């Protein structure tokens, strides 16, 4: 966890190949939310939470609202994506979103085709261009390979 936060919901699914995946929405006290998805192996504290809400039950696809405080540094996931050898060998991959819940985007992207929940485009920000991370962290993030080698974002002016 990049900051002290409250996990407000957990979503789970099983892929067509039967691989368990989960994700979380976590909000800081000052209104910054991270949304991470396509996680594969939960960290210890998140695994406990998943067991408590029944999110590890085989075959369930659900979203559960919770109120679980997690300190900065909590390991959300040990592995992401799917194990190699499944889904045509896709292996690791995850979604990451950063939302500033303190103010609504004046012009959310019309082309937004992701999650159908309306508040995501209304509050999402470009975390690679805004001062959300230190320069050192931004350099590390820039080294992470993008899906298919293509870097695009509906929220970043200089994506691609």
Automatic annotation (TrEMBL):
Q: What is this protein called?
A: Unannotated protein
Q: Which organism is it from?
A: freshwater metagenome
């Amino acid at each position: 966890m990049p900051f002290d936060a409250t996990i407000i919901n957990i979503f789970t699914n099983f892929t067509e190949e039967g691989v368990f995946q989960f994700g979380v929405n976590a909000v800081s006290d000052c209104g910054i939310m991270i949304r991470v998805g396509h996680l594969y192996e939960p960290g210890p504290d998140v695994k406990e939470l998943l067991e408590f809400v029944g999110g590890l039950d085989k075959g369930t696809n659900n979203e559960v609202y919770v109120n679980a405080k997690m300190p900065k540094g909590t390991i959300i996931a040990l592995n992401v994506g799917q194990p190699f050898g499944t889904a045509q060998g896709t292996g690791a991959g995850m979604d990451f979103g950063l939302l500033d819940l303190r103010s609504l985007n004046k012009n959310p992207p019309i082309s937004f085709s992701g999650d159908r929940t309306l508040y995501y485009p209304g509050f999402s920000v470009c975390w690679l261009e805004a001062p959300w991370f230190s320069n050192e962290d931004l350099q590390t993030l820039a080294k992470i390979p993008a899906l298919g080698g293509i870097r695009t974002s509906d929220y970043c002016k200089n994506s691609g």
